[in-house]
Design brief:
globular, mainly beta, homodimer, six-stranded antiparallel sheet
Amino acid sequence: MIKRAVEMKPLIDLCAEGGRGELALTKMSDYFNGPDKLEMFAYAELEPGAEVGYHVHIGEMESYYIITGEGTYNDNGVSVPIKSGDMTYTPNGEGHGIKNTGTAPLGFIALIVKD
Amino acid sequence: MIKRAVEMKPLIDLCAEGGRGELALTKMSDYFNGPDKLEMFAYAELEPGAEVGYHVHIGEMESYYIITGEGTYNDNGVSVPIKSGDMTYTPNGEGHGIKNTGTAPLGFIALIVKD
Protein backbone atom coordinates (compact mmCIF):
# COMPACT_ATOMS: atom_id res chain seq x y z
CA MET A 1 0.00 0.00 0.00
CA ILE A 2 1.17 3.48 -0.81
CA LYS A 3 0.09 6.81 0.60
CA ARG A 4 1.24 9.86 -1.29
CA ALA A 5 2.50 12.89 0.60
CA VAL A 6 -0.57 14.88 -0.47
CA GLU A 7 -2.92 12.17 0.85
CA MET A 8 -1.65 12.44 4.43
CA LYS A 9 -2.82 15.43 6.42
CA PRO A 10 -0.62 16.80 9.20
CA LEU A 11 -2.17 17.59 12.56
CA ILE A 12 -1.25 21.10 13.67
CA ASP A 13 -0.35 21.50 17.34
CA LEU A 14 0.44 25.00 18.59
CA CYS A 15 1.84 24.06 21.98
CA ALA A 16 2.86 20.41 21.76
CA GLU A 17 3.57 18.96 25.21
CA GLY A 18 3.49 22.46 26.69
CA GLY A 19 5.93 23.81 24.12
CA ARG A 20 5.26 26.66 21.70
CA GLY A 21 4.93 27.46 18.01
CA GLU A 22 3.68 25.20 15.26
CA LEU A 23 4.31 21.48 15.13
CA ALA A 24 2.93 19.78 12.00
CA LEU A 25 2.63 16.07 12.75
CA THR A 26 1.85 13.61 9.97
CA LYS A 27 0.91 10.36 11.71
CA MET A 28 1.73 7.96 8.88
CA SER A 29 0.83 4.92 10.98
CA ASP A 30 -2.77 6.16 11.16
CA TYR A 31 -3.04 5.21 7.47
CA PHE A 32 -2.43 1.50 7.95
CA ASN A 33 -3.49 -1.23 10.36
CA GLY A 34 -0.14 -2.03 11.96
CA PRO A 35 0.85 -4.15 14.95
CA ASP A 36 -0.58 -3.09 18.33
CA LYS A 37 2.88 -2.30 19.67
CA LEU A 38 3.49 0.31 16.98
CA GLU A 39 2.05 3.40 18.65
CA MET A 40 3.23 6.00 16.11
CA PHE A 41 5.37 6.32 12.98
CA ALA A 42 5.23 9.96 12.01
CA TYR A 43 6.90 12.77 10.13
CA ALA A 44 7.12 15.86 12.33
CA GLU A 45 8.03 19.40 11.35
CA LEU A 46 8.68 22.30 13.72
CA GLU A 47 8.68 25.83 12.33
CA PRO A 48 11.62 28.08 13.30
CA GLY A 49 11.41 28.91 17.02
CA ALA A 50 8.83 26.19 17.70
CA GLU A 51 9.27 23.61 20.42
CA VAL A 52 7.88 20.29 21.64
CA GLY A 53 7.96 20.66 25.42
CA TYR A 54 9.72 18.24 27.72
CA HIS A 55 7.66 15.12 28.45
CA VAL A 56 8.27 11.64 29.84
CA HIS A 57 7.37 8.38 28.09
CA ILE A 58 5.86 5.64 30.24
CA GLY A 59 5.42 2.11 28.88
CA GLU A 60 6.95 2.99 25.55
CA MET A 61 10.07 4.30 23.82
CA GLU A 62 10.49 7.06 21.29
CA SER A 63 13.20 7.57 18.70
CA TYR A 64 13.73 10.60 16.49
CA TYR A 65 15.68 10.70 13.25
CA ILE A 66 16.53 14.25 12.20
CA ILE A 67 15.98 14.73 8.47
CA THR A 68 16.52 18.44 8.00
CA GLY A 69 17.26 21.58 9.96
CA GLU A 70 18.92 22.13 13.31
CA GLY A 71 17.84 22.51 16.88
CA THR A 72 18.28 21.78 20.54
CA TYR A 73 17.30 18.45 22.05
CA ASN A 74 16.49 17.99 25.72
CA ASP A 75 17.90 14.54 26.43
CA ASN A 76 16.29 13.56 29.73
CA GLY A 77 17.23 16.95 31.18
CA VAL A 78 20.46 17.64 29.31
CA SER A 79 20.32 20.13 26.42
CA VAL A 80 22.35 19.26 23.31
CA PRO A 81 22.47 20.54 19.72
CA ILE A 82 21.08 18.28 16.99
CA LYS A 83 21.10 18.34 13.22
CA SER A 84 20.35 16.30 10.11
CA GLY A 85 21.40 12.65 10.37
CA ASP A 86 21.35 12.47 14.16
CA MET A 87 19.22 9.88 15.96
CA THR A 88 17.81 10.13 19.47
CA TYR A 89 16.42 7.46 21.76
CA THR A 90 14.19 7.89 24.80
CA PRO A 91 13.63 4.63 26.69
CA ASN A 92 10.62 3.80 28.83
CA GLY A 93 10.61 6.08 31.87
CA GLU A 94 12.83 8.83 30.45
CA GLY A 95 11.90 12.17 28.89
CA HIS A 96 12.76 14.53 26.08
CA GLY A 97 11.87 17.72 24.24
CA ILE A 98 13.01 19.37 21.00
CA LYS A 99 13.26 22.94 19.72
CA ASN A 100 13.96 24.41 16.32
CA THR A 101 16.74 26.97 16.81
CA GLY A 102 17.40 27.48 13.09
CA THR A 103 15.82 29.59 10.38
CA ALA A 104 14.45 26.68 8.32
CA PRO A 105 11.93 23.98 9.29
CA LEU A 106 13.21 21.21 11.56
CA GLY A 107 11.93 17.96 10.05
CA PHE A 108 12.23 14.60 11.76
CA ILE A 109 10.81 11.12 12.02
CA ALA A 110 9.18 10.23 15.34
CA LEU A 111 8.75 6.55 16.16
CA ILE A 112 6.95 5.32 19.29
CA VAL A 113 6.87 1.60 20.14
CA LYS A 114 5.22 0.21 23.26
CA ASP A 115 7.08 -2.16 25.56
CA MET B 1 20.59 9.12 24.21
CA ILE B 2 21.91 10.62 21.02
CA LYS B 3 23.84 9.06 18.21
CA ARG B 4 25.43 11.44 15.75
CA ALA B 5 25.30 10.68 12.04
CA VAL B 6 29.07 10.06 12.00
CA GLU B 7 28.80 7.56 14.87
CA MET B 8 26.50 5.21 12.96
CA LYS B 9 28.09 3.08 10.29
CA PRO B 10 26.02 1.94 7.31
CA LEU B 11 26.14 -1.67 6.21
CA ILE B 12 26.86 -1.91 2.49
CA ASP B 13 24.85 -4.51 0.60
CA LEU B 14 25.59 -4.96 -3.11
CA CYS B 15 22.62 -7.16 -3.98
CA ALA B 16 20.04 -6.63 -1.25
CA GLU B 17 17.29 -9.26 -1.43
CA GLY B 18 18.57 -10.35 -4.83
CA GLY B 19 18.57 -6.81 -6.21
CA ARG B 20 21.60 -4.95 -7.55
CA GLY B 21 23.84 -1.96 -6.90
CA GLU B 22 24.72 -0.42 -3.59
CA LEU B 23 22.35 -0.18 -0.65
CA ALA B 24 23.79 1.63 2.37
CA LEU B 25 21.72 0.62 5.39
CA THR B 26 22.18 2.43 8.71
CA LYS B 27 20.41 0.27 11.29
CA MET B 28 19.75 2.95 13.89
CA SER B 29 17.91 0.55 16.17
CA ASP B 30 21.15 -1.44 16.59
CA TYR B 31 22.40 1.49 18.68
CA PHE B 32 19.78 1.18 21.43
CA ASN B 33 18.09 -1.56 23.40
CA GLY B 34 14.53 -1.20 22.15
CA PRO B 35 11.42 -3.33 22.56
CA ASP B 36 11.61 -6.88 21.19
CA LYS B 37 8.90 -6.15 18.64
CA LEU B 38 10.98 -3.41 17.02
CA GLU B 39 12.96 -5.40 14.48
CA MET B 40 14.54 -2.49 12.60
CA PHE B 41 14.45 1.31 12.42
CA ALA B 42 16.91 2.27 9.70
CA TYR B 43 17.97 4.91 7.23
CA ALA B 44 18.49 3.35 3.80
CA GLU B 45 20.12 4.85 0.75
CA LEU B 46 20.17 3.36 -2.75
CA GLU B 47 22.64 4.73 -5.30
CA PRO B 48 21.24 5.58 -8.76
CA GLY B 49 20.26 2.37 -10.55
CA ALA B 50 20.43 0.29 -7.37
CA GLU B 51 17.60 -1.93 -6.26
CA VAL B 52 16.34 -3.89 -3.26
CA GLY B 53 14.87 -7.03 -4.80
CA TYR B 54 11.32 -8.17 -4.23
CA HIS B 55 10.87 -10.06 -0.97
CA VAL B 56 8.00 -11.12 1.26
CA HIS B 57 7.66 -10.30 4.97
CA ILE B 58 6.42 -13.07 7.24
CA GLY B 59 5.46 -12.37 10.86
CA GLU B 60 6.23 -8.68 10.53
CA MET B 61 5.34 -5.49 8.66
CA GLU B 62 7.58 -2.97 6.96
CA SER B 63 6.94 0.68 6.20
CA TYR B 64 9.09 3.01 4.12
CA TYR B 65 9.09 6.79 4.26
CA ILE B 66 10.78 8.33 1.23
CA ILE B 67 13.01 11.22 2.25
CA THR B 68 14.77 12.13 -0.95
CA GLY B 69 15.07 11.02 -4.56
CA GLU B 70 12.72 9.10 -6.80
CA GLY B 71 12.20 5.53 -7.81
CA THR B 72 9.94 2.63 -8.55
CA TYR B 73 8.26 0.64 -5.82
CA ASN B 74 7.05 -2.92 -6.27
CA ASP B 75 3.91 -2.97 -4.17
CA ASN B 76 3.17 -6.66 -3.71
CA GLY B 77 3.65 -7.22 -7.44
CA VAL B 78 2.44 -3.88 -8.80
CA SER B 79 5.08 -1.37 -9.92
CA VAL B 80 4.44 2.28 -9.04
CA PRO B 81 6.56 5.45 -9.01
CA ILE B 82 7.52 6.91 -5.64
CA LYS B 83 9.16 10.11 -4.48
CA SER B 84 9.95 12.23 -1.45
CA GLY B 85 7.14 12.36 1.13
CA ASP B 86 5.47 9.11 0.08
CA MET B 87 4.90 6.31 2.58
CA THR B 88 4.58 2.61 1.84
CA TYR B 89 3.21 -0.22 3.96
CA THR B 90 3.79 -3.94 3.55
CA PRO B 91 1.69 -6.01 5.94
CA ASN B 92 2.56 -9.46 7.24
CA GLY B 93 2.46 -11.92 4.33
CA GLU B 94 2.91 -9.40 1.52
CA GLY B 95 6.01 -8.38 -0.41
CA HIS B 96 7.82 -5.40 -1.88
CA GLY B 97 10.94 -4.11 -3.59
CA ILE B 98 12.34 -0.69 -4.43
CA LYS B 99 14.59 0.73 -7.14
CA ASN B 100 16.30 4.06 -7.61
CA THR B 101 15.40 5.26 -11.10
CA GLY B 102 16.75 8.78 -10.62
CA THR B 103 20.20 10.37 -10.86
CA ALA B 104 20.52 11.22 -7.15
CA PRO B 105 20.54 8.92 -4.11
CA LEU B 106 17.17 7.51 -3.05
CA GLY B 107 17.04 7.93 0.73
CA PHE B 108 14.31 6.45 2.89
CA ILE B 109 13.41 5.28 6.36
CA ALA B 110 12.73 1.55 6.73
CA LEU B 111 10.73 0.41 9.76
CA ILE B 112 10.10 -3.25 10.57
CA VAL B 113 7.82 -4.21 13.48
CA LYS B 114 6.97 -7.81 14.36
CA ASP B 115 3.39 -8.90 14.84
